[in-house]
Automatic annotation (TrEMBL), chain A:
Record protein name field: RNA-3'-phosphate cyclase family protein
RNA 3'-terminal phosphate cyclase insert domain ranges (all copies): 204-316
Ranges of residues in domain RNA 3'-terminal phosphate cyclase: 10-339
GO BP, sorted A to Z: endonucleolytic cleavage of tricistronic rRNA transcript (SSU-rRNA, 5.8S rRNA, LSU-rRNA)
Taxonomic source organism: Trichoglossum hirsutum
Listed InterPro entries: RNA3'-term_phos_cycl_insert, RNA3'_phos_cyclase_dom, RNA3'_phos_cyclase_dom_sf, RNA3'_term_phos_cyc, RNA3'_term_phos_cyc_type_2, RNA3'P_cycl/enolpyr_Trfase_a/b, RPTC_insert
Keywords: Nucleus, Ribosome biogenesis
Family stated for the protein in its record: Belongs to the RNA 3'-terminal cyclase family. Type 2 subfamily.
GO cellular component: nucleolus
From TrEMBL, chain B:
Designated name of the protein: Uncharacterized protein
Comp. bias (Basic and acidic residues): 201-213, 252-263
Highest taxon, organism lineage: Eukaryota
Species name: Trichoglossum hirsutum
Sequence ranges of Basic residues compositional bias: 265-276
Length: 400, 276
């Protein structure tokens, strides 16, 4: 692998996807121009550094070189070993602590980790803890852990990856003051490893048959949950009657004061509430929506519930066999599948986004074949994307 | 300028004058529309006239002698902020079925298959449980009777005894998915087994030969195949070829020939296998 020249990328956009594609395909990457013009925070942000640490923890033999200013990164991937006993693993669990001032939700780490985990050598068991874990959705665009559990993990079932997958929410937390930090705790157990994910053919989106959701609030009264649920149902009841939204009430986590004035003092962090909704179709396509109260407050639960319901309706109205949230995950897994043509019906509104087109270009750079796109059979404005797998799946673990 | 407010229970139950007016005019519009439609089809209606109630005098006179005249306008131009507080919503988790809660709110991702199963079982609950159970029991008894009726001799009762009981048990076990019959002997001297197999194959061969001679077409002979070793699901971190045992990777001839590929240039290998 060292013989192949490194792939060169620029800017910090889709950094996590580039890094996991690099890890999956075994190509080393050189990323330059990471926030070069920012006067205050040039270079890698702290959550990106933390993600690199996570990659280092679950792989064996990866090399990460960061330039002095942090604007350039060289990553040489190692083998994905998961939580095998070794350096940094105690009792089969990798402990990962995002930085205290982390502004991204924990799904920023969870979703890429879920993409690596099926190709790991041994089961992946990572505990995210510490004062930087935000389990709720964030204003930076991350989804909540509930959405990861109910909308992202079921996607893997379609690829034949379904056994012994758990996402335990040990302590909930919304974003702290100014959206920085929380103190939640989440454990991901991903114990189904495959050689290659199955080839999928999803050509029929089906009709929406049920709506489920989780309303969560930390550190405030449960009446807020009830108000969110009521508002969301008020919007959705018009379309479907099979709606259950569950309520999860938890106290806000405590953190010790860091200023040192009083040794025993603690403060509450991560107070807030939010709603995560999924709509499942008869063909098991899942659309999701996620809205959380802003860290500054000032929005009543009714508005949050209503906005979440509207967001869900928007996601459903896009149509296709994959939601905007699941599209990059599905396409990456299809590209890593066996050397066979998989087909996926996607809405033009989903595939025509900058993120997906960028992912397609990145996949080609990493050696995957291009996508074939044609119009769908039905006249609903969807396209059928054909993806040929690379047949590598798991580059590190093949014994020749 | 705020006076003491009197109770007016009879006022509260009455609809407001605006509501009366709107409802009345709405029905009036409807009447008018029906009338026009009718007249367009048949002949004009003469005598019917639209009834209009006088809505300008609402019955508020009963309270007119009250000394309270409502809220006064604020003098300094402040506007009163109106806070709408809706009634506390009823607990929406009350109607959630427990299995739904269990399947959705665990740490595992909710799978679509488990949820469809629950939906089926839920529909079963609707019908009467007791009669259902009795029906199922009777059904099972009938099924067994039909399946094992050839074991029964006419003078015995419906529950088989003795050797027949063993045969019936065997049938039931096989229908439940047992791999082999409990009546077949699995331990015997090798010569006996060889003899049994030889006899069976001889009998089968004779049956086929006679059928062929008589021009009868039989079913295709199935080759019995043992467990297929090389199609097994291999472990994730093990070698993709051969058998690793006691620290040694053993390759048999077939493995080696597959690795080497076909000897003839340009020729295809005889049997195409896909191995990863």
């Amino acid at each position: 692998m060292a013989s192949t020249p490194s792939l060169r990328f620029e800017s910090q956009r889709s950094l996590t996807y580039r890094l996991i594609l690099s890890t999956l395909t075994g190509r080393q990457v050189h990323i330059s121009g990471i926030r070069p013009s920012s006067p205050t925070n040039p270079g890698l942000a702290n959550h990106e550094i933390s993600f690199l640490r996570l990659l280092e923890a679950i792989t064996n033999g990866s090399e990460i070189t960061i330039s002095y200013t942090g604007t350039t990164l060289l990553y040489r991937p190692g083998l994905i070993v998961g939580s095998a006993t070794g350096s940094g693993v105690s009792g089969g669990v990798i402990r990962h602590e995002p930085p205290p001032g982390c502004v991204r939700g924990i799904s920023y780490f969870l979703i890429p980790l879920c993409l690596l985990a099926p190709f790991s050598k041994s089961p992946v068991n990572v505990l995210f803890t510490g004062p930087g874990v935000i389990t709720s959705a964030t204003s930076a665009g991350d989804v909540s852990v509930d959405t990861v559990r109910t909308a992202v993990l079921p996607l893997f079932e379609q690829f034949g990856i379904s056994n012994n997958i758990e996402l335990r929410i040990l302590r909930r937390s919304c974003a702290g003051p100014e959206g920085r930090g929380g103190a939640g705790e989440v454990q991901l157990i991903f114990s189904h490893q495959v050689r290659l994910p199955k080839t999928i053919h999803l050509m029929n989106p089906g009709k929406i048959k049920r709506v489920r959701g989780v309303a969560y609030c930390t550190g405030i009264s449960s009446a807020n949950n009830a108000r969110m649920i009521e508002a969301a149902r008020g919007v959705l009841n018009f379309f479907i009657n099979d709606i259950y939204i569950f309520s999860d009430v938890s106290p806000a986590p405590f953190l010790p004061m860091t200023d040192g004035s009083n040794a025993g003092a603690k403060r509450r962090i991560g107070v807030g509430f939010g709603l995560s909704l999924i709509a499942e179709s008869s063909a098991s396509v899942i659309y999701s929506a996620d809205v959380v109260s802003p860290p500054s407050g000032g929005q009543p639960p009714e508005i949050i519930g209503q906005r979440c319901a509207h967001q869900l309706l928007e996601s459903v109205s896009l149509g296709g066999c994959v939601s905007p949230l699941g599209a990059p995950i599905m396409l990456t897994l299809m590209a890593m599948g066996s050397e066979d043509v998989g087909r996926l019906q996607m809405s033009k509104g989903v595939i025509g986004t900058e993120e997906i087109i960028g992912l397609g270009r990145d996949l080609r750079r990493f050696g995957a074949s291009g996508w074939g796109i044609r119009d769908g059979e039905r006249d609903d404005g969807d396209v059928i994307v054909s993806v040929v797998g690379r047949g590598v799946g798991n580059v590190g673990r093949k014994v020749a | 300028m705020l006076g003491k407010r009197k109770r007016r229970p009879e006022e509260a139950s009455q609809p407001s004058p605006q509501e009366v007016g709107s409802a009345d005019s709405e029905s009036g519009i409807l009447h008018e529309a029906f009338r026009r439609h009718f007249e367009a089809q048949f002949k004009p209606l003469g005598g019917l006239k639209l009834k209009t109630r006088d809505v300008s005098t609402p019955t508020l006179d009963a309270d007119s002698d009250s000394e309270w005249n409502g809220f006064s306008e604020p003098e300094d131009g402040r506007t009163v902020e109106v806070v709408e507080c809706t009634a506390p919503p009823k607990a929406s988790l009350a109607g959630v079925p427990k299995e739904e809660l269990k399947s959705f709110m665990t740490s595992k991702p909710p799978s679509s298959s488990s949820r469809t199963k629950q939906a089926v079982s839920k529909s079963d609950d609707d019908s009467d449980d007791a009669t259902d159970a009795a029906n199922i029991r009777n059904d099972l008894a009938l099924q067994r009777l039909l399946a094992e009726s050839h074991l029964l001799d006419p003078q015995s009762s419906y529950s088989p005894t003795g050797a027949n009981r063993h045969k019936a048990t065997d049938l039931r076990l096989q229908s439940l998915g047992a791999k082999a019959s409990i009546l077949s002997q699995d331990k015997m001297p090798m010569s006996h087994r060889k003899g049994i197999i030889a006899k069976a194959s001889r009998r089968e061969e004779r049956r086929r030969r006679e059928a062929r001679e008589n021009g009868i077409i039989l079913e295709k002979a199935r080759k019995s195949r043992g467990p297929n070793i090389d199609r097994r699901e291999r472990s994730i971190d093990g070698p993709g070829v051969g058998m690793f045992r006691k620290g040694m990777l053993r390759l048999n001839k077939r493995d080696i020939s597959e690795i080497e590929g076909s000897k003839r240039p340009g020729g295809r290998s005889q049997k195409k296998t896909s191995r990863r």
